[in-house]
Each structure stands twice: as structure tokens, then as C-alpha cells.
Amino acid sequence: MQSMLRKPIASLLCGLTLIPFLSMPVMGAPPSGSAYSGHPKLVVILVIDQFRGDYLDRYRDEFREDGFRMFLDKGAVFSNCEYNYANTRTAPGHATLLTGAYSNGHGILGNEWYDPERRNPKGSLEPGTVTSVWDANTKFVGVADKGDGAASPHNLRATTLGDELKLATQGKSRVFAISLKDRAAILPGGFSANGAFWIDKNSGAWITSDYYEPQLPGWIQQFNSSKRIEKYWDVQWKDATGHVLGTTASKKKDGKPAAFYDAVGATPFANDYEFEFARDLITQEKLGAGPATDLLVISLSANDILGHAVGPDSPEMHAMALALDNQIAGFFGFLGQQIGLANVWVALSADHGVAPVPSVAKNLRIPSVGFDGEKLKEKINAVLSVKLAAAKPTAFLKSLDYPTVWLDDRAFSALHVKEADAEHAVGEALLQIGMQGYFTKSQLAAGAVPNDELGVRFLHSYSPLGGWYVLGVPAPYTIGGTSGTDHASPYHYDRHVPLAFYGLAFRTGVYRTSAEPVDLAVTLSSLLGINAPSHAVGRVLTEALASSNVSNPANVSHGEHP
User: Fold this and answer.
1) 2 Cβ partners below 8 Å, 6+ apart?
2) Residue range 58-84, pLDDT digits in tens
3) DSSP 496
4) pTM, rounded to two decimals
5) Which terminus of the chain is more solvent-facing, meaning fewer CB atoms within 10 Å of its CB: N or C?
């Protein structure tokens, strides 16, 4: 099995050379990157939720010079970066980026899973679905707590870049992560983050859990109470021509209050809101002003919220990308004024891509289908009932998060069917309803997969957490829904994401060598002189380092230097 897995390269490269950065002052070669001495002062990682790898090229000619083109023209860009696993969901993607490992290392299989051991608030055994960050032993902070647990990184089975940074500097480094989504803040931040903050979906207020602090910092309390959120309500979102693409109506059609996550979250105003909070966090927490390197992870959720509804080829997604270009330019400007761009490294990536809307693909004569998940579940139960229950209708499945199926272990156990056999039976039922293949939890736990690319992707998707499950292999361009679109397949459109770096440590150019998101944490760890995360399998991207002695390969194009 070892031959199928990537191994980290433990090389620390020093003597970084200068790369032009906006109005970055001319100076001699900067000292080697070292987290211990605060070089750089701050590392910022931008994760754009559901931002496909082809977007940067698709809209390149429309981007401004100080937005995305800061990466494209003056940074190190890996245009051939793809996740090497099949479970392309938000939670595993964010965990992968900061642990440098896949699900078989960090343990996060999906956004949620069926857990037969979950207990309800009264303490009785109540099987149910839990989120990737749900923690029964925590409480929400900043919003009314319902007493059924809040959230923490306790499901992670690997350390993150931030954890290793904190360990290396004996806690002197400051680590924060923010997102509209809890999982996209908590998992990147890791165990030792000073804070992970996300929003209450109804009000939009910033919240956390008592895993981090018993109460919100005073500046966040003030942020929430200052009514700064009101400017994002009841406004029109227009494209560059003035065409209205959406509104953030505070009332739904029935007159009831709209949820901030739904109404504002699907517009560029949500990214404005996140960047506004990030600026305050940097200022109030004095990031970049301490004796060691600090880390901030910003996961921008709006692309995903909108993308599921309209797809990657819509005018709305085009306008969202151009709006984000402006927002990133503004944030770079803030970093330059607050800390100095010569003192900051910035990395850019995404947690997954997305499939085209089936109707768009079919218009181009590409086979594409959107399935009704509940009907698929009924078909699978019917097939299993004929085989195992003498045609007596039985609910053998707890849930179907296409293409992953979670089994009801009690239904199978009542028929004296063991886990491996139950999962095999479900897999065979998936073939009967049109799946192209399947991998069972038991099979993956034993490493019994074909020694090919698809087998490795599913092996990397394994997690021991949760109950019994089967990972289906869907046909290309099929999704589990009858409207909008989705991700979660092993195909290029879901695995291809941007990977780009900006700062003095990086050699300007577009690199077409193969790269993976697991390389991000390993590369930054090496440059900072700290250990890579505990389960990291990525490699150091030496070809893009300013101090690298590697000759310029033919498949690398470099930007202009003065």
C-alpha cells in the first residue's frame, strides 16, 4: 500500500530572494523564513469554497492587476492541482488543506455522517446524523445554546499547520480561522487555534464554542452589536452592466424573517462581510505584531452557497468571481497598510470544484443526470428487501448523501447480516440502480482496493469514524439532486482547484507540474522551519521557491522581473 501513497519531502530551503510585490520596497535578500523570529509576520490562507481550478484562466483577462492577478502575474501558480481522493466535500477539503493529509489520515469523510452511538440530550441511545464538527461536550458562545452540543475539532485525527506552528513557537504564534460555516473555520484552525469563528445562520452574528473561550472577545461582541450587518440587508446585487442578479431581502415571501446565510450568503456581500470581520480580527488581535509568525485562515463561503443553485457556467458565478477579484484586491491593500506586504505570505486554494448543471451539460450533448435522492434510496431499499427480507419492505438505509450511502446497522443485524456482508449487498444494489462501482468501509479498512488511480482515490477517502457506509462510484456528470448542481465525485471537475502563493519566498511563474492540495501545508511548514502536520503526505513544492536551485523546467513559465 505504501507504494500508492505520496511521501513528504523533508527539505528546508533558505536564502529567499526578492519578488516584486505591488509597491514593495526595494531591499536586499530577506532573511530565511522562520516562524521563530516572525519571518514572515503573518501567513494568510484564502480558501474559496467551491472555486474550480479553471476559473482563474476563464476570467483572467477580466481580473484587475491587484486582485487575482497578484497570484497569476507575480506569484507562484500551480495550474494542475487536484485532490487525490473521491470525497470532494467541504469538510474533508478544508481538513486536507491544513493537515496535508487525506481522509485516511485526518479522519473527516464528509460534512456529516451517521453515528450509531450518538446520544440525545436526555442520555438515551438515539442513532442519528452528526456533523463533522459536532461535539456533545461543548456549548455555543455568542448565540443561545440548546444544550445538544456545539462544535469543536475533536473528530480530527491529525494536526494542522496551525497546530505545528503553535507547538514550534511554544504558543507564541497566534492562529485564527473564520468562515460562514462552522466546519470551514474549525477544521482548518485545528486543535490549538486561538479562535475559530463562524456565523449564526439566522442573524449573521459571529459565534464560536466554549472549546475556544467561555465568551466572545469584547471586540466581537461590539462587532455584533454595532449593527454593521444592517448594510447587507435589502440591497440589490448588480453586475458590471447594472443588471440585477439578486437581492438580499430581509423578509421572505410569507413575511417571515429571512436567514442571513440564505439571503446574503449567496451574494458577494457575504464575502464583503467576511473580509470586514477579518480586517477587524487582524487589527484587534494584533496579528503580525508578535515575536513569531501568525496564521489566519479565511474560508469564503459565498461561492458554494450560490454555486449549488446556479452552477459554474452561470452569469451569477461570473459576476461573483469578478466581485471577489475586487474584494481580494482591497484585502491586499489592507495587508499592505497594516503589516506591509513584504512581511506577509498569502496562499490561495479551494476545498473542491463542482459539476455543471445537468441541463447545461445535456445542451452540449454530454450525458448528465440529476437524481432524486429519496427515490434512489427507495430503489435501493426495494432491491435489498427482495434479496434479504423476502420482499418485505424494509428500511435498510439511514441516509443517502449521493454518492455515499449510510447503512442502518440495526436493520441488518436483525437479519444476522454482518457489516462486511451488509455493505457488499448495498454495493451490489448500487450497481443495479446505475452506479459504475462501489467501495465498502470494510474493504477500505483492509486496503483491499485495485492498485490504480481510482482505487487510490477511494483509499484516501476512508475514515473509521461513523457507522457502516458504502462509497458509490457515480457516472460522470451525475449528481444527487433534481435542481442546481453538486460535487462529491472522483472526477476532474470536482478535484481540480487553484493552488497559488504570493510573497518573497516564492518564485514567480505558472507551474504545470502535478500538485495536490496536501502540498500546501507541507510547503509552508518547510519554509517556516517547523514540522509538517502529523499525517501529512504532501511534498515541498521546491520548483516554486525563490531559493530553489532547481533549473527552470520546460513546463514552467515565469513572470517578468524588473
Assistant:
1) none
2) 999 999 999 999 999 999 999 999 999
3) B
4) 0.92
5) C
